[in-house]
Amino acid sequence: MTTLSLPAPVQQFVDAINSADTDAFVAAFTEDGFVDDWGRVLRGHDGVRSWAGSDAIGAGARMTVLSASVDGSTVRIHFDWRSDVFNGESDGIFELDGDRIAGFTIPPVH
Q1: Which residues are bridge partners to 35 per DSSP?
Q2: What gap in Å lies between CA 72 and CA 62, rounded to an integer?
Q3: Can you give the pTM of this predicted structure?
Q4: Burial of 1 per CB tally in 10 Å (0-12, 13-18, 19+)
Q5: What is the mean pLDDT of the chain?
Q6: Is the dihedral of CA 95, 39, 61, 55 positive or negative?
Q7: Rg of the Cα trace of the chain?
Q8: How far apart (Å, rounded) are the C-alpha atoms in residues 31 and 70?
Q9: Which of 36, 62, 92, 109 has the fewest CB atoms within 10 Å, measured from its CB?
Q10: CATH of domain 8-106
Q11: pLDDT confidence of residue 60
């Protein structure tokens, strides 16, 4: 299996989910960072922590990045997700701000 080379903040995001480390997950984001999960937007460290608790780490999530592309500060991934909330493949878009994530969006599938 080929290992993808992801920008450090994205790799921290994935590693934090897979190791159930909420503090490391939140630390991957800027202070005003956000998660946009199908239009439900949670902002700031409190919002990011809330999403981690309800939809990711608190739901026993495991994330496998299947493909990734980087264009400047935008990282697009396609990933497999297994949790108590959702199982399946999705796309994700990260906006980076230096060594942190300014935003992570899971766009709705139409």
Answers
A1: 42, 104
A2: 27
A3: 0.94
A4: exposed
A5: 95
A6: positive
A7: 13
A8: 23
A9: 109
A10: 3.10.450.50
A11: 98
- Over residues 61-78, the mean pLDDT reads 97
Could you tell me which of 106, 103, 85 has the C-alpha nearest to residue 29?
103
**Whether the Cβ atoms of residue 25 and residue 16 lie closer than 8 Å to each other:** yes
Name the burial class of residue 34, with classes exposed (0-12), middle (13-18) and buried (19+) by CB atoms within 10 angstroms of its CB. Answer: buried
- pLDDT exceeds 60 at position 50: yes
Distance CA 35, CA 45 (A): 10
Residue 17 token pair: 């989910």
Q: Cα(102)–Cα(85) distance, rounded to whole angstroms?
A: 24
Mean pLDDT of all residues in 80-99:
97
Percentage of the chain modeled with pLDDT above 70: 96
Q: Is the pLDDT of residue 102 over 60?
A: yes
Degrees (nearest 5) of the Cα angle 35, 48, 106?
A: 20
